[in-house]
Specification:
Blueprint: E1 5-8, E2 12-17, E3 49-50, E4 59-65, H1 68-79, E5 84-92, E6 99-103, E7 106-108, E8 117-119, E9 127-136, E10 139-146, H2 153-160, E11 184-191, E12 200-203, H3 208-216
Parallel strand pairs: 4-11
Antiparallel strand pairs: 1-2, 2-4, 3-4, 5-10, 5-11, 6-9, 7-8, 9-10, 11-12
């Protein structure tokens, strides 16, 4: 997991979560990202903890708080919608327009199906923006920004608008074999962690399983300047204080 560390300072870490790995252990246990948190203490007495979550099959930027004070602040920032999040997705078909807003409240389908969600005019508010980055062969590369943080929000919004995310077996057309994998990636995150410094923006490199379809849609390979580092620091450890 050290190799997947994108950013580190005295308050938070940002890691590049791999697709296919749950962020936390389920009721029956099992392998999860939390198994690796002990290696991410960097001298602190406790493991870092999740400041938010990503779906098991979603890759990319994931924020961890390094201690209780940090977790409280990060939790407040996420709850107030002050953390900027941009996801990249490849979808089947695509919207006719080049950008737009989806405003579609969501609720759980039923308790017996876990976190599966459905559109519901009486559900919790859910809004997402999208922008077309490229198109090819009946698929579209989108940059998506969830303005709210509902479970499976982007997956449901895209599917209900008629362009499900490639590899989605719940809301899309994919089967449950995992082939193709879900093409949804937390590309960047912007966190105003300090009142006296600019917000920290971190980008995660495109995972291998998404590169082929993204390239067909016009994406070119990562450059050394922006593949794994924060835009502010250029180094995942440059903001680490000398003493904590």
């Amino acid at each position: 997991m050290l190799a997947r560390l994108l950013y580190r300072d005295g308050m938070m870490l940002v890691v590049d979560k791999p697709a296919g790995l749950s962020v936390h252990r389920g009721p029956k246990g099992g392998h999860s990202l939390e198994d690796y948190f002990g290696a991410l203490r960097f001298g602190l007495p406790r493991d870092p903890a999740l400041a938010h979550r990503l779906d098991k099959d979603t890759s990319g930027c994931l924020v961890l708080g390094r201690h209780r004070k940090a977790l409280a602040l990060l939790g407040k920032l996420f709850k107030q919608g002050k953390v900027g999040k941009t996801y990249w997705a490849v979808v089947e078909g695509g919207p006719a327009e080049d950008e737009g807003l989806i405003d579609m409240p969501l609720s759980e389908i039923d308790k017996g199906r876990g976190w599966w969600m459905k559109p519901d005019p009486h559900g919790k508010p859910a809004s997402s923006t999208w922008k077309v980055m490229g198109r090819a062969d009946g698929r579209t590369w989108l940059a998506l920004e969830p303005l709210t943080g509902r479970t499976h929000q982007l997956r449901v919004h895209c599917a209900e608008r008629g362009f499900p995310i490639v590899g989605d077996p719940i809301y899309g057309t994919a089967d449950r074999t995992g082939d193709p994998p879900l093409h949804l990636h937390s590309r960047s995150i912007t966190v105003p962690i300090s009142k006296n410094k600019p917000a920290v923006t971190v980008e995660a490199p495109v995972p291998a399983h998404m590169q082929e379809l993204l390239e067909k849609c016009g994406w070119t390979s990562e450059t050394d300047a922006n593949s794994v580092h924060s835009r502010e620091s250029g180094n995942p450890e440059s903001h680490e204080p000398k003493a904590e």
